[in-house]
Amino acid sequence: MLHLLSVESSADVSKLIIYVGLIILLGLLFGRLAEMVKVPAITGYLVAGLFLGPIFKIIDLESIRSLSFLSDIALGFIAFQVGNELWFGKLKKSGMKIVVITIIQALLTSLTVTLLAMIFVDLSVALILGAIAAATAPAPIMIIVKKYRTKGELTDTVLPVVGLDDAVGVILFGILLSIGLSLMGTSTGSLSFGEAMREPMIELGVSVLLGIAIGVISGIAIKSISPNKDRQEKNLIVVTVTVLITTGSAIYLGASPILTPMIAGAVVTNMINKDCYVLEERTIRFFVPPIMIAFFTLAGASLQFDVIIAAGVVGLMYIVGRIIGKMFGSYVGTALMKSSPKVKKYLGITLLPQSGVAIGLSMAAYNAVSPVNMAFALTIQNVVMGSVLFFALVAPVMVKIAFEKSGESQDYNELVKEEKEKAIKRKLAHNQS
Q1: Domains of the chain
Q2: Is the dihedral of CA 84, 85, 89, 93 positive or negative?
Q3: What is the rounded distance in angstroms from the CA atom of residue 162 to the CA atom of residue 144?
Q4: What region does 358 belong to: left with phi over 0, alpha with psi -120 to 50, or beta?
Q5: Sign of dihedral through CA atoms 336, 346, 101, 366?
Q6: Each residue of 100-159: pLDDT tens digit?
Q7: What does the pLDDT look like over 237-250, one tens digit per residue?
Q8: Which residues contact 18 (CB under 8 A, 6 or more apart)?
Q9: What are phi and psi of 273, to 5 degrees?
Q10: Is 213 helix (H, G, I), strand (E, B) or coil?
Q11: Backbone angles phi and psi of 92, in degrees to 5
């Protein structure tokens, strides 16, 4: 207790508080600048982080690590929102379709990355990289969906796919990590399939049970709120507490900090009525933005340019393979499930973002592989971090364009309509003159 009140500790805390303010302020500024040049605000947040971190080194890595809890909270809110979209009434018709599409795109992405990577690295490393490549980051997708008010079949497909993708990715990672370690041919790597799968299956099981338990309690609490002037405030308290407890409990118990709040969100949305759901969604939308700005700006600040050089040609193969795998895999899955042409064409692009989940899996791979072969462990870590930097900067722009081209971005549609009206008025004015 005395240590917490020491001058040095107080100075560290004050420094972190200043950093949080600086991160949100600069992130907001760069986000606005990005939108002025028709680029998603997320990219602006990431660029702001690059200026604060690797470019000018205003914020050191130790401070960034100390603020990592903000990223955990942000991911919790994002995952909860993804869960809110998983209303069973809407998923009854498309449930099996979503499962098939998710599994096919994940498997083909892993296969493509593995085949390309094994040209330059050992098969064991290629398999682990292939497993990590399947992961998709829900955060950029969710932010763009909310920001540009996307609506339609593509939106209805990508959100549940992203939600399920985390569970599929964890299972796939467990399987391929086991095979990869066995191929390394050492006593440390000779894990049986059952032993390797035990941990990811326990993680999934704990995530599901924890998410359901907390989701039920949260749903009952929201349903019990009386419709008065304090309803929105009380709703915000329940949602915030739910996200914090699910995320914190998941991290503490070794469960998935994304899957757990996502399941809680799905349980809540299926327990409450439409009016409660609309209020809940509106509450989150007004509360979350500062946390999202901090999350993406911190993500940019934590990236390091030297990992691109370290990743080398293997990193390039990973990026190319992942793009091909996501786009081709999504096309095959949607074609088999007879989805509309626009979903076949654009779903793969919307699944390109990769960040938090991939970094978490790469850290797990590093811990498992480093006792066996440190060079292999470093290769995996550098390749994933280098690709995360690439996808963090490029993927949000591609996702935004995909929603615009598919006709599901309401903001873009309104802008096009305004431009057409202005063009007609100019033409009429010209003809009259």
Answers
A1: 72-291+313-432 (1.20.1530.20)
A2: negative
A3: 14
A4: alpha
A5: positive
A6: 999 999 999 999 999 999 999 999 999 999 999 998 888 888 888 888 888 899 998 998
A7: 888 899 999 999 98
A8: none
A9: -85, 175
A10: helix
A11: -55, -45
The pair of structure tokens assigned to 209 is: 């049970």
CA atoms within 13 Å, Cβ hemisphere of 114: 20
Name residues whose C-beta falls within 8 Å of residue 38's C-beta, 6 or more positions apart in sequence: none
| 130 CB-near residues (< 8 Å, 6+ apart) | 109, 110, 111, 112, 113, 114, 117, 176, 321
Cα(205)–Cα(140) distance, rounded to whole angstroms? 26
Which residue(s) pair with 409 in the sheet?
150
362, 380 in Cβ contact below 8 A? yes
In the structure encoding, which two tokens stand for residue 325, read together? 């795998």
- Burial category of 101 from C-beta neighbours within 10 Å (exposed 0-12, middle 13-18, buried 19 and up): buried
Beta bridge partners, 150, equal 409
Predicted pLDDT at 1 = 37
Residue 343 carries which side chain, given as an amino acid letter?
Answer: V
CA distance 424 to 430: 10
Pair 165, 133: CB distance under 8 Å: no
Q: How far apart are CA 190 and CA 195, in angstroms?
A: 10
Residues 249-260 pLDDT 10s: 988 887 877 788
SS3 136: coil
In angstroms, the CA 316 to CA 383 distance is: 8
Count how many residues are written for the chain. 433
Q: pTM higher than 0.85 for the full model?
A: no
The identity of residue 432, as a single letter, is: Q
**Contact at 8 Å (CB) between 77 and 296?**
no
Closest CA to 361 of 134, 23, 93: 134
Return the structure tokens found at 128: 């682990």
Nearest to 219 by CA among 281, 268, 276: 268
Cα-only R_g, the chain = 22
